[in-house]
Amino acid sequence: MRLRVTPRATRWATAATATALAVALLMAAGPPSAAPAHTATGHRWITDDQGRALVLTGLNTASNAKSRPDGLPWITEADVGREADELGSDFVRLLIQWRTVEPSPGRYDDGYLDRVAERVRWYGARGFHVMLDLHQDVYGPAVKGNGAPAWATESDGLPVAARDPWELTYVEPGTVRAFDHFWGTRRAGRDLRAHYAAAWAHVAARFADDPAVLGYDLMNEPFGGSVQGPAFEAGPLAALYRQTIAAVRAVDHDSWIFVEPEAVSANWGLPSALPYLPDPRGSGERARIAYAPHLYPLPMDLGGGYTGDAGKWVDRTLASWREQTEKTARRLGAPVLIGEYGLDIALPGALRYVEKVRALADAMGAGTAYWSNDPGSWAPWDQSLRPTPLLPVLDRPEPRAIAGDPVAYGWDEASRTLSLRWRPQAGVRGDTEVHLPARFFPEGGVVTGAERGRWDPNSRVLHITSPPDGPGEVSVRIRPGA
Ligand code: MNI
Q1: If we measure between CA atoms, which residue out of 214, 169, 213, 222 comes closest to residue 193?
Q2: Res 10 pLDDT > 80
Q3: Is 3 within the bounds of a domain?
Q4: What CATH number has the domain bearing residue 290?
Q5: What pLDDT is attached to residue 42?
Q6: Across the beta sheet with 256-259, what order do the strands follow?
Q7: Are residues 16 and 71 in the same domain?
Q8: What is the pLDDT of residue 268?
Q9: Are 425 and 383 in the same domain?
Q10: Whose CA is nearest to atom 19 of ligand 1?
Q11: Pairing state between β 398-402 and 445-448
């Protein structure tokens, strides 16, 4: 399997399998359980330590951490600097691996966490927010995937053949068995979930007081082995999340905890049955559980571009993905972050697709992490670290932090206008900050409306201070300055 800059499947032979799986999952998805009365029904936001709503924009860094023995991504500090200067990211989904956190049962490698912390400092020095992602695909290296250590892989000697496309390795007998033993759904055995939760507690204790670390993505693209759909999400997956949330909260009261749905299904815009997950730090506005699903429309998994009939199918997927994501987020009382979206930018219509996803995220009030920061055909930089045509598309005018309750925001390229509305909230400190790329705002931006803007040419951020006794709603439009 090729894990680095993962190529999508190109053979339509897999379409039948994938469609059958999708139909089976659609039929299996039952009605979600009712939201508890204390769950917020309005839109929730990921907030910073000043209470500002964050619109996070960045890259997944990086796929090659999956396969490198040291479990670290390829980047140096200079690459983080390039990302800040050329791309204008303020967020990173940083991949870490269970195998390198806990190389033998109950023994943690703090040297590894030191090296992760060093990378967190590179980002923190440039004002980024970091989300740590305990990544897995296809369970772990012992069954031809990445993530789990060999000691936590029990495949009962069943075979695993590496399949092309790599996603099919998920359904090899040994891989399914390893997942079943992890989830404890086949027989009583070693409690691997307790190890997983304890490993997270160890990581969270290390980063609880690190101001650059916003939170933790508990498991990348969960897969249920032989238990699928609602039985998996409302059963063993929710149980693992509750156990891990409790373990993290025992050492870290305030960081955001991100949960993902079962990947196959939710990635394609199908329903998730993930239930409400209480946060021990409090309910309603106090809870800091966020929902971080991925977005990979099936026609693109099958190697299609954003064009023709496949393009129409992609548009339908985007609409159902939004509807299902918002439904699940309401049930969870959680803000949304698109933890992954991405594609080979050589595919026809690829750049239009990326613009479309970003506009969708703006309309949903969701942050985005593009997959991925691995130089090559999926990335904003090529193998020589020269910008690809994706870079300017990703570097889009965007609010970063909003000092109140956002109402709406969006970029209109035709009129070169970023519009932004919010309601100031008591107790929220700091400015509203808007990132304005040089491509559209060579001389910075000017604000229309009662508010004043202060342009910082170095960070390319416009700071907007709203009057403390301002109106109920602030509405500004930002246009290129002279
Ligand atoms: O496309 C997937 C994906 C497809 C199918 C399955 N199963 C059959 C369980 C699981 C996942 N994932 C999309 C991307 N996510 C990883 C990293 O998290 C990337 O390498 C994939 O491109």
Answers
A1: 222
A2: no
A3: no
A4: 3.20.20.80
A5: 62
A6: 289-291, 256-259, 213-217, 129-135, 91-97, 57-61, 367-370, 337-341
A7: yes
A8: 97
A9: no
A10: 6
A11: unpaired
Distance 217 CA to ligand 1 centre (A): 16
Tell the residue nearest (CA) to atom 22 of ligand 1.
Answer: 6
Calculate what percentage of the chain has a pLDDT beyond 90.
85
User: Is the Cβ–Cβ distance between 59 and 93 less than 8 Å?
Assistant: yes
Residues 111 and 178 in one domain: yes
C-alpha of residue 221 to centroid of ligand 1, in Å: 7
Check whether residue 238 and residue 129 sit in a common domain. yes
How many angstroms does the Cα of residue 187 sit away from the middle of ligand 1? 27
Q: Are residues 65 and 16 in the same domain?
A: yes
* CA angle centred on 282, ends 281 and 285, rounded to 5°: 120
Q: Which domain holds residue 418?
A: 398-482
Q: What digits encode the pLDDT tens for the residues 129-184?
A: 999 999 999 999 999 999 999 999 999 999 999 999 999 999 999 999 999 999 99
Query: Mean pLDDT over all residues of the chain?
Result: 91
For ligand 1, the distance from its centroid to the CA atom of residue 312, given in whole angstroms, is 22
Answer whether residue 1 is part of any domain.
no
Q: How far is the CA of 4 from the centre of ligand 1 (A)?
A: 13
pLDDT in tens, 332-341: 999 999 999 9
Assign residue 417 the CATH number of its domain: 2.60.40.1180
Nearest-CA residue for ligand 1 atom 4 is 167
Q: Rounded to the nearest 5°, which phi and psi values hold at 121?
A: -60, -40
| Residues with a CB atom less than 6 Å from ligand 1 | 6, 137, 167, 170, 220-221, 223, 263-264, 267, 296, 301, 340, 371
Same domain, 463 and 382: no
Answer for the pair 274, 235: CB distance below 8 angstroms, yes or no: no
pTM score, two decimals? 0.92
Indicate if the pLDDT at residue 29 is higher than 60. no
Examine residue 62 and say whether the peptide bond preceding it is cis (omega within 30 degrees of 0).
Answer: yes
